[in-house]
Amino acid sequence: MKLIVSYDFRSGEFENNGYSILNIRKGEKPEEVIENYYSDFWGEEQTQHEGNGIYSGWGYSVCIKIKGWKLCNDKDFKVISKYF
User: Which pTM value belongs to this model?
Assistant: First the structure.
């Protein structure tokens, strides 16, 4: 199973959107998988979780804001991965 996470990336006046594709095992909660992945997004001891899906780094000069997520089974992911 895959977890597709959409987010906004912000650095000063620059903003862009992106996606992360994470593995999720049966029984895992998507929110926990997201927290585990993004809590070190900017590197060890460089990421601050500010709540509400916002993860800042490098002295708050950059941040990721989680917009949403969707679960995707392996069969469907194999099809859509051709377009990434």
Answer: 0.86
CA 5, CA 55: separation in Å to the nearest integer?
Answer: 14
What whole-number distance in Å separates Cα of residue 53 and Cα of residue 15?
A: 16
Instruction: List the beta bridge partners of residue 19.
Output: 6
Long-range contacts of 5-9 (CB under 8 A, 24+ apart): 5/34, 5/37, 5/66, 5/68, 5/69, 6/66, 6/67, 6/68, 6/69, 7/64, 7/65, 7/66, 7/67, 8/64, 8/65, 8/67, 9/62, 9/63, 9/64
Per-residue pLDDT, 35 = 93
Domain locations in the chain as residue ranges: 2-74
Q: List average pLDDT for each run of 10 residues in the chain, which is 84 residues long.
A: 96 93 96 93 84 87 95 93 82
Place of tokens 């099809």: 79
